């Protein structure tokens, strides 16, 4: 089911979390262009449409004009200047958001070759919780997990035990 290049554990955890909480007949708007995870969601039977790659910090057309009950944002919010504004424009009553967690032993991610592939935010779990609460959502369920790497050193050892990803299911109050 997964190619070697896919982050298998993250995708499996995300799909299991979605299967636990979603009815596959619900319409999902997934922030970001079609990607390996959204393709797997479709293969699992979810009704997924993606945004078109527009800058959703300033262009809310996809949020305002599409028909969806669920909003998913998997590893997207850390790239946005203001994820609160996205939540304000969201029409969905249910959101599923995953973010990489801030690691005290590693700097924020910044691509040296791609000006769009940078993290403006690296959240701690309480920060994403607070953002959702402030935007009018209540957290129903969440999970965290570590992301070990196959390298040697202090940071790889820390990555083995320190949660790296946080996935949240929240409903509008």
TrEMBL record:
InterPro entries: SAM-dependent_MTases_sf (IPR029063). It comes from the Bacteria. Gene3D superfamilies: Vaccinia Virus protein VP39 (3.40.50.150). Keywords: Methyltransferase, Transferase. It holds the Pfam family Methyltransf_23. The keyword Transferase applies. Coiled coil: none annotated. GO terms for biological process: methylation. The keyword Iron does not apply. Signal peptide: none annotated. GO terms for molecular function: methyltransferase activity. This is Methyltransferase domain-containing protein.
